[in-house]
């Protein structure tokens, strides 16, 4: 009995020691010399890095509105607290100016910072882990070519146990791939390029794939759609009804490269940013590769109600300048607001009056009876840089009440999406906090 | 060079493609009747017509005008609806400071052009995007109705 | 050295106007009180020498071609002033309104000092009030001189001649001479020392709705506002001032901006930076491309809540300046059967006239030429002189038509800014502010915190009335060296000091607390603020006394005939005592301001979700003799909508020293589909004309507050009205969509599962 007890105790001690070593042993640094050797030098390296930095959309997370790019400070409201993106400019005090190449690569591949501390996976290193070391180094070269910005990011607001960074090591063990994405010889070069861009660079799945209990992307339901920070990342699997299976290649190409596609509406929210900061800068070949890869992802049927109704009755019966006579909305508050603040750009037939970016027809945002993204766009507005200048929708949060925005949302969903929605002022109030 | 047809005249303007039509009209061509009020399509002061349809010129990149015919306040009086609207505007003394009225008249004439007998609801739909800080709304409504009868 | 730019054709050239043959009559409209000083001349008109006994500030010119031009010192900005003033002259001159043309006067503060405003200015609804008599006298004088000239020509007694529609007729013989033919001879006639004005019953124009003079060019884009001015070689600039109020410009990296096609120059000022381009678009893109760092300064942490807290603290602690104290205030308050108290809060307000701030300036080594629409041309001229270091007479200001003033153009700081920009370049520059700049760098209607109380007697009527006003001094900004600390700024208590009620025991005082925010006039500062408090509170008293609000006011206006007159008319025409449907309410507001009396009844409904719909407004007005009823009505309609817009939506707020609002999407303006139907009724009056431009704005907020109370039983004492406070319980959880009848059962089912959803959302 006593021996058994001792044995048990010994086992516990050994396991505990093992766990402790696993958790607290200093992380080793990768050897990056081989990759360094393969890279060009000077401007060629910086140019390559710039393209890849855009493809990986670093700026979206590491910049706050109106402030210097890559200076960090953007808040991520997660279910367990708020964390802030760090400054990744080459500033030596507040940025990553003192980081070595190996430290930078380790951060991208393993989510470990210069001091060996674990980073949180709001930083999508689970995706970047699949990036080649050369590409990671090119990104660093580009970031270091920019002027350093002195800016301290706010302190994270996380409660126990989430503030214990070492916990992430378990998570990494389970969910972070080791080594760059390997090409699938059975697929075309274009498909493989697309896969690399989507998985290692653009990290589409970070938003569009649902997460499991451990907050890791659930690749069993790849691209089935998810909700985060108050926005829906829609199903982008090839499911015809709830995904993008019904989109033509051209529509996908336009949406990704320009931020809108005919009869599919415009990208807003985080997707708008992804296009604005990242995708629109990619070469047409790369966009085509992304389209090829994304379309090959097997269909996932989601329960999301954002299913586009092609020809809603009210919409088809309207002209650009006049809504169809529709007894139901005759004197509604939503209609009234739409007449005043919205119709000048959007029109009533879904085409957009001055710019196709204001076209609402076919957009999932106006077809989602939950109104999730619609409410957010009305509250926060939208921006997109296009070859024809900056297209903007103002943010209506300040001057319009919850009641008004709820009414407007219901009107828009009914008119443009043919959806019977029941958005309440409380829904809007909640969206404001997200 | 971008080719435009403004009030029946062919114009070639050497401007950036993303320049809004408003500023091409005002600062390059010199047609200052079209006004700047907000620059974000919220006030309607900059309304002109493209092939008879009202658009907010402050957010309309000049390159996207294409072959469509631009009509501005300076020429709206040559259209039957525009003339009726102008007469009714003067008859009912709609105008106060007048700054918003180019846009109001452009929106109203386009309405009358496509809808010879607009109801209150039609007027709401067509005119609520045009802000008047002087508060001439009730007269605008009355004048559109009078013009419809003319 | 660049050549002087030629004046655009629309600009007034005073010299050209004053030269040439015909009859020129100058008269002192403001300078010499109400007695006109007149002189006629065809030779050398007085120009510049204003110290002479003859100091004309307005002119009537009758050319030998028969053209009649009036130079008027007030500025036309949509309020119909020119038409009104021309009507007065034309009435006595015996011409039709279509025979005259009115133009703005050039700046000259000595000449145009409006007594009421202490400087050449158009504001405070003073125009018609100040000019009613002198303009008619001037017209009559010119008529008499023309008749005298005709009589001399025909060698007949002047008494046998009459003037009508620009023609003098010798009645016995039917001979006729037109004014144009008589103009030269009339100029040689002595200026009559006695003029007789028409009996009001003979008025042909006054009291009739005549067409506005300034409108035909406004339906076809022909008229030019300041923003439309184009002078040769002109470039266009747009500007960004430090977003933090009072902050300064730090570093500017302009490399990217200079690369923008069409960008010409980047100009740094102490607190702002401007980009000048070939056109506005280049300037705007250039401005966006600048990398600017600002030095925030003392206001870096300023927030609206702090300002209101400071006002509250000042109101409660600082020693007030007494505006009015009559009777035993304390004693009555102690003895009162009931005491009613309330505090009211009012926000900062922006003007947001439709025409954004703009100014064309050409600074040459020896001269500065300015084209701008301003309510204060002389102040603008003075500022430009200061900025450029040129003597005043080397600053030439061409005043332009104004696309909305509302008080915004009673300050000229933007002219100084434009001059400072233009000074740094050799060519003429048109500075145009974006709407964002206009909203964020306005000078605002001040915020106020008012504590008001009353004691009620056994009959429910007030036995004592105490109104403590707290806010900044607007007038103080116009006084060099600032407003003396212990002196009452009448504007701060205007509308509060003398409510049109029988209130024998009354105290009204003011605590001055200037905000760290620039402030100025705003379509009737004092009354728009004070009458909201007074009239809301009057309703509170009526309610406390269990009386109908109209009945209550009726009792209190027994000795106020003009107030009682509009009250009765508004009550009658609105059908005050007829019942309304549930959810609807009527509110009344009564006041006297700017020399006019007004009662307004507003009929509204409030939905369970708290949304306000404005259905109908009934306004009764006594503004004395009505010169042009149509213009009066237009001003009432516009003023009311302006006030309703503010009461519902407007309030400028600050975060970190920056204005939170920026354009019409967040500084919201009432739209056409929200405007109520408006009915206006006149009380016939023989009093001299009162102001009307701001009168109805004053009525809007209190009438609306009282209507909201009538509809919901909720008293809102803070502007803009917080519509969320009007929600009925549970309204948050209900969809506000308009549901098609057939789908209603489904929707009801959806709604019934909603509470569960909401609980889930909380997790
Ligand atoms: S300026 Fe174009 S809508 Fe306001
Ligand atoms: S008339 Fe002045 S803004 Fe409409």
Topology:
The complex is a heterotrimer of chains A (about 425), B (about 150) and C (about 775).
Chain A: H1 2-24, H2 33-38, H3 42-55, H4 58-61, E1 75-78, E2 81-84, H5 101-110, H6 125-128, H7 133-145, E3 157-158, H8 168-175, H9 189-201, H10 205-208, E4 226-228, E5 231-233, H11 249-258, E6 260-261, E7 265-266, H12 269-278, H13 284-296, H14 313-316, H15 333-346, H16 372-380, E8 382-386, E9 389-393, H17 402-417, H18 425-432
Antiparallel strand pairs in A: 1-2, 2-3, 4-5, 6-7, 8-9
Helix pairs in contact in A: 3-7, 5-7, 9-13, 11-13, 15-17, 17-18
Chain B: E1 2-6, E2 9-13, H1 21-29, E3 47-50, E4 53-56, E5 69-71, H2 80-91, H3 101-114, H4 120-127, H5 137-149
Parallel strand pairs in B: 1-5
Antiparallel strand pairs in B: 1-2, 3-4, 3-5
Chain C: H1 14-18, E1 23-27, E2 38-40, E3 58-62, E4 68-72, H2 81-93, E5 100-104, H3 109-112, H4 127-154, E6 161-164, E7 167-170, E8 175-178, H5 179-187, E9 235-241, E10 248-253, H6 255-258, E11 263-268, E12 272-277, H7 280-289, E13 291-295, H8 304-317, E14 321-326, H9 329-335, E15 338-346, E16 358-364, E17 367-372, H10 377-388, E18 395-399, H11 413-422, E19 429-432, H12 435-440, E20 448-456, E21 462-471, H13 490-493, E22 506-512, H14 525-544, H15 549-556, H16 561-574, E23 584-593, E24 596-606, E25 612-622, H17 629-649, E26 654-655, E27 658-659, E28 677-682, H18 695-712, H19 744-762
Parallel strand pairs in C: 4-5, 9-19, 17-18, 21-22, 25-28
Antiparallel strand pairs in C: 1-2, 1-3, 3-4, 6-7, 7-8, 9-12, 10-13, 11-12, 14-22, 15-20, 16-17, 16-19, 20-21, 23-24, 24-25, 26-27
Helix pairs in contact in C: 2-4, 4-5, 10-11, 14-18, 17-18
Bound molecules: FE2/S2 (inorganic) cluster (2 copies).
One FE2/S2 (inorganic) cluster (FES) binds near residues 37 and 45 of chain B.
GO molecular function (chain C): oxidoreductase activity
Organism (chain C): Phyllobacterium myrsinacearum
InterPro entries (chain C): Ald_Oxase/Xan_DH_a/b, AldOxase/xan_DH_MoCoBD1, AldOxase/xan_DH_MoCoBD2, AldOxase/xan_DH_Mopterin-bd_sf, N-heterocyclic_Hydroxylase, OxRdtase_Mopterin-bd_su_IorB, TAT_signal
